[in-house]
C-alpha cells in the first residue's frame, strides 16, 4: 500500500521533494459499517496549493506528515457496509493512498455505465459544479450579455464557456497558447479566444473582443490578466473570483491595479466563489449538467496521467498549464 | 448673478484655477411652469471629482465651460409653477449659480421647520441615503457583527457608524487625526477609532481593534487603508465600495494589494455602491433617517463655509480632510 504525505509546506511553486512517498506492506482490515477502497482516479486541482500553506482559509490547511487529500474515485474491494457493495464505485474527498478504509461518509456512489469514471471528478463533479454554480449564482447571466473567462482551456473554464453559450451569452476565453485558443473555438464553441502569452496589450485585445463591454468575468487566474479585464467592465458587471492560480505560488503579496475605483464607477460586484458553500444546490446542478452532457451540449477535455507515483508531478504541472481541461491521475 | 464654470479638467488635485467665475448683470425671466431659484446651500462632494474627468462613469462627465452641478437647496423667489410657490425651498441637482430658472423637475420640496435646510444636503439627503442604503443593501448587517468604516469622520462615514450602532454592530472607525478619532467615539458612539496618520502598522491595528475579524467594511477611501482591512476580513465578509477619495486625484493608475485571493479565501463580496441605483428605496430610507434623527439616535457634523465664491476651495479642501462631516457652502 502506498501513501503520499505532505513533507514540507511549499515555498512558491511546489516541487516533488515537498511530498513523501511511503510504501507499507500491510493488509487493511475493515469492521462493521466500513468499506475497503481501492483508488481508481485522483483529481489534482489548483486549490490544493492553498491548503498546503499554513494560513487561514475556507478549509483547514493540510497537516505536515499526513496524507494529502483530494477528490478521488475508488472501487469498493471489500465491504461490511449496508449500502456500499463490493464492486461499487464511490467518489469524494479521500487520502492520496492506493487503498484506504472508509465508513462511506461524505462519499457518493457513481455509475460507470452513465459516464466514464473520471468524469465524476470533472464535469459531473466539483469541476462542473464550480462552473455551473459560479456562473449562475454569482454571474446571474442574461442572454445577450458578454462573458469573459480566464483559464478558459482549464477544467472549470472550458465548462463555464460552454454553459455561457447554452445560456445565450457571447463568450470570450483567455488562455495561454494558440493551441488552447484554437480548442476554445473549435471544441468548446467560444466566440473569441485570446492568447495572453502572445498578446502585447491585453487591455486593448479584450476591448476589441468585447466591443459592448464585459458583463460577467469568470476569473480563474487573477494577476495582470484580470487587471486588463477591468478596463472593459460594464455597469452592474459581475466578477466571479473562482481562483487565482497566477498568484497561488507567490511568496510575496501580489499587487494589482486597484479594483475599487472600477467597481464604484460601474456599480460592479466582485465575489469570491467556493463551491462547497452551495452544497444544497448540488443535486439539481448535477442533474442539469448530466442532461446537457447527455444531449451532447457539453463536452470536456481531460489530461489523464498514469500511475500513483505521478500524482505530485501532475499537481505541479497544473501551474505550468500542462493540462488541457481536467487533470486526473489514473492509478 | 454669478456662475462657476469648469474651465480645465483637473490634473491630479483640483485647484481654484480649474474653475472660472462669471458675473453677469441679467434679470432672469420665467415663463409658465417655471420657478426662479435663489441658491441657499451648495453641497460639495468627493464624487464630483470623477465627473471632472473626461472618462466613462455612472454619470456623464461635466462639460468644459459649462456650470458645475451638485446638490443644492434653493429658495423659490418667483413662481409661475402650480406646485412650487414663492418662499418654498427645493432641493436637488442644480448649477453652481446664485440664481437659476427651473421647471422643478427632479427637485424635492424641503421643510425648514422639520430640519435645518443644510440637513437636506446631508443626513436627510444623499449623504444619509448613501450611508443607510449602502450599509443595509450591500452590507446586510446582522447584530453582533463587526463593521469597519474608513473616512469615518466624513459626512457619510459618521452616519454609517451611527447606523451600525443602532443596528447592534461593533463599529470601528478609521480617520486622519486624533481630534477626528476622538469625535468618532465621543460624538458618534463608535466603539473604536484608529488614526491612520499616526499608526505605523494599520494591519495590526485593525486586527487588534477587531479581534473577531471584520464582517462588513464600508470603504470610502480605497488605497493602503483598504489594503490593510483585507487581512482581517471574515468568511462571507461584505465590502461596500462607496468611494475611493485617496485615489481620485491620482494621475497614474493606482496599485494595491490584490484583493482577489482575499475574496476567494473568504467567499467575500466587494461591490461598488452608487446611491442613485437605489432611487426606489429613497422615500422609505428618508423616513427611517428622519425618525432616527427625531429620536436623537442620529447626530451629524457639518462644516459650513460661507460665500458663493468659496465653493471651489471648499470642494478642494475635501481632499485634505479639512471638513468634519458634511461640507456645505452657505450663500
In short:
Two copies of one chain form a homodimer. The first copy, chain A, is of the alpha/beta class. The first copy, chain A, is built from nine helices and 16 strands.
Describe this structure in words.
The first copy, chain A, has 331 residues and is α/β, with parallel strands linked by helices. The first copy, chain A, has two domains: 2-122 and 301-330, Quinone Oxidoreductase, Chain A, domain 1; 126-276, NAD(P)-binding Rossmann-like Domain (Rossmann fold, 3-Layer(aba) Sandwich). Chain A has nine helices and 16 strands. Chain A has helices spanning 48-51, 126-138, 155-166, 178-186, 202-209, 223-230, 260-266, 282-294, 311-317; strands at 2-6, 19-23, 35-43, 69-79, 89-95, 99-102, 108-110, 146-150, 170-175, 192-195, 214-219, 233-241, 255-257, 269-272, 302-306, 326-330. In chain A, the strands form three sheets. In chain A, strands 3, 4, 5, 6, 7, 15 and 16 form a seven-stranded mixed beta sheet that branches. A six-stranded parallel beta sheet of chain A has the order 10-9-8-11-12-14, with helices on both faces. Chain A is globular, with a radius of gyration of 20 Å. The interface between A and B is large, with 38 and 38 residues.
